[in-house]
């Protein structure tokens, strides 16, 4: 039980770089294409792909279909 709480606490304390914040801020609960994310953030396609992968690895977003991303819902339960 303590380990689960520790993992949840660590997820809540993730620090993002400014470009990661920009990409994460453009993603919501409605699927958004990578092309729209690139357009909204004014970052290069390569940089957006890199950041999307990092955000997926941090368990903050998920790819719901080919090149469409959404934020992951916070799990506030036990």
From TrEMBL:
It comes from the Bacteria. Residues 16-64 form the DprA winged helix domain. Pfam families: WHD_DprA (PF17782). This is DprA winged helix domain-containing protein. It comes from [Bacteroides] pectinophilus ATCC 43243.
